[in-house]
From TrEMBL:
<feature type="transmembrane region" description="Helical">
    <location>
        <begin position="12"/>
        <end position="36"/>
    </location>
</feature>
<dbReference type="GO" id="GO:0000156">
    <property type="term" value="F:phosphorelay response regulator activity"/>
</dbReference>
<keyword id="KW-0547">Nucleotide-binding</keyword>
<dbReference type="GO" id="GO:0005524">
    <property type="term" value="F:ATP binding"/>
</dbReference>
<keyword id="KW-0597">Phosphoprotein</keyword>
<feature type="domain" description="Histidine kinase">
    <location>
        <begin position="258"/>
        <end position="471"/>
    </location>
</feature>
<dbReference type="InterPro" id="IPR036890">
    <property type="entry name" value="HATPase_C_sf"/>
</dbReference>
<dbReference type="GO" id="GO:0030295">
    <property type="term" value="F:protein kinase activator activity"/>
</dbReference>
<dbReference type="InterPro" id="IPR004358">
    <property type="entry name" value="Sig_transdc_His_kin-like_C"/>
</dbReference>
<feature type="transmembrane region" description="Helical">
    <location>
        <begin position="168"/>
        <end position="191"/>
    </location>
</feature>
<dbReference type="InterPro" id="IPR005467">
    <property type="entry name" value="His_kinase_dom"/>
</dbReference>
<dbReference type="Pfam" id="PF00512">
    <property type="entry name" value="HisKA"/>
</dbReference>
<keyword id="KW-0902">Two-component regulatory system</keyword>
<keyword id="KW-0418">Kinase</keyword>
<protein>
    <recommendedName>
        <fullName>histidine kinase</fullName>
        <ecNumber>2.7.13.3</ecNumber>
    </recommendedName>
</protein>
<dbReference type="InterPro" id="IPR036097">
    <property type="entry name" value="HisK_dim/P_sf"/>
</dbReference>
<keyword id="KW-0808">Transferase</keyword>
């Protein structure tokens, strides 16, 4: 995997460099061709203008030859004066027949080789550039030198063999490509190693996460720092989820054990009393039979409550429960819950208060579910406290409807407060007579949240507990 990833990056970099080099070569060739064409065009244009070569080329028009004698027009003299130039006219034998503004010491007769030397090299001085022209009169041909005294004027004669140029170009291209390829290979190798090293670490980290190894922490640096940060965050979330899953599994196993025991106990009672009533060896009185039937009914209702809690909790957790909302008076609902609780023979001696800010506080709610949530919260306050504890239920009307259920009882430890809404959790203060499914508080929380509300719990050990519901 290491070399495969490095090789891919390396091949990409080398390919890009080669393409760039080839493109540069093509552009260079095109540039040379355009430059040559441009120079040709400029030369053609210059011949029509006032360049030294153009002046020399057309100056034969200003030369007048008659009877083997030469002279210049006034316009020609003026043009030579303007360009600080001189002229020397030769006959067919290379002898001077006319001169104008000639420098001191110039030859008066030239051999063919002298003419060539005069044209190709600076034979006068370093400040003069000489050009050659021709004047034809009848069958006679006359030559003339025009020297421009301008040190900035230069002429270079270039000769080359096109085959040698092509050969040098081919060798140079191969050499350039080879050198560029080696440079690209070296640079690309180190670049790809630097680029792929953190990727290999990321791949290894993702492999560990896939194998449920969640203890990963990278230092977020370099171009991949955001990726490293997200991998660290994912590792943290997965680790937290795994710990939560383990805790939930432990709670579920504990809950299954408790519920199994709680279900077996009433079932054993129901079975035992039913067998006794069926057995013909026993002759029970009418009052005894009614007592047995009452016990069987009470145990059956307990089983029914546990099964309903399981069903309701699952539907709330999976958001499969449809709310049947209507605009009802929450004050009436809370008053009835308090009255029904006090009418329960088990809790008839409990101290409870109910207060409200307005007689009519309308709320859009599913009346049955809100009643179930409030009942669960009140029962939780009852079963976890002594009979002498005062339980206060109140409702206030404001921007939101605020419901409070508070007591001055035992309170809770911080670790218990953190788990109070966990499914399957049972508080440590629950008596043997009040064991339930462990789902009551979770159901109450889910019902409030399903109504778009919030529920908060504050508790201090030994000082009591306060639950606030905002709808």
């Amino acid at each position: 995997m290491n070399w495969r990833l490095t090789g891919r990056f390396l091949a990409s970099v080398v390919l890009i460099v080669i393409l760039v080099v080839l493109s540069n070569i093509v552009l260079l060739v095109l540039s040379i061709m355009v430059t040559i064409q441009t120079e040709w065009d400029e030369t053609a244009i210059s011949e029509k203008g006032n360049s030294a070569e153009a002046i020399t080329s057309r100056f034969h028009e200003q030369i007048i030859i008659s009877n083997h004698q030469a002279t210049l027009t006034d316009k020609g003299k003026a043009e030579l004066d303007q360009h600080n130039a001189w002229i020397q006219i030769l006959d067919e034998d290379g002898k001077q027949i006319f001169g104008y503004r000639l420098p001191v010491g110039i030859k008066e007769k030239y051999a063919p080789i002298d003419i060539i030397q005069m044209y190709k090299y600076k034979e006068i001085d370093m400040n003069t550039m000489v050009f050659i022209g021709e004047k034809q009169t009848g069958s006679s041909h006359y030559s003339y030198f025009i020297g421009f005294q301008n040190r900035n004027l230069q002429r270079h004669v270039l000769s080359y063999d096109i085959r040698e140029v092509v050969q040098v170009f081919n060798i140079g291209s191969i050499l350039v490509l080879t050198v560029d390829g080696l440079i690209a290979l070296i640079v690309g190798y180190f670049f790809s190693k630097r680029l792929t090293k953190p990727l290999l670490s990321l791949i290894e980290g993702i492999r560990k996460l896939a194998n449920k190894e969640y203890h990963i922490n990278y230092e977020p640096i370099g171009i991949y720092k955001d990726v490293f940060y997200n991998v660290n965050y994912l590792s943290y979330e997965l680790r937290a989820a795994e710990n939560e899953r383990k805790k939930l599994d432990a709670m579920r196993e504990e809950w299954i054990g408790n519920v199994s025991h709680d279900l077996k106990t009433p079932l054993a009672s129901i079975q035992g009393y039913a067998e006794m009533m069926k057995d013909t060896e026993y002759d029970f009185s009418y009052e005894e039979l009614r007592e047995f039937a009452e016990i069987i009914e009470r145990k059956s209702l307990y089983l029914k409550d546990v099964i309903e809690d399981l069903n309701l909790s699952a539907r709330l957790k999976n958001k499969e429960l449809r709310l049947h909302k209507s605009n009802k008076n929450i004050v009436t609902l809370l008053r009835n819950v308090v009255i029904d609780t006090l009418n329960d023979a088990r809790y008839a001696d409990r101290n409870m208060e109910f207060r409200f800010s307005d007689e009519m506080i309308k709320v859009d709610m599913d009346e049955i579910l809100i009643r179930r949530a409030i009942t669960n919260l009140i029962y939780n306050a009852i079963v976890h406290n002594d009979p002498s504890v005062l339980i206060k239920v109140s409702v206030e009307k404001g921007k939101h409807t605020l419901i409070r259920i508070e007591d001055n009882g035992k309170g809770m430890k911080e670790q218990e407060l953190d788990r109070i809404f966990d499914r399957y959790y049972r508080g440590t203060n629950t008596g043997e007579l009040h064991k339930g499914s462990g789902l009551g508080m979770a159901i109450a929380r889910d019902i409030i949240v399903a109504h778009g509300g919030e529920i908060k719990v504050n508790s201090l050990l030994g000082l009591g507990t306060k639950i606030e519901i905002q709808l």
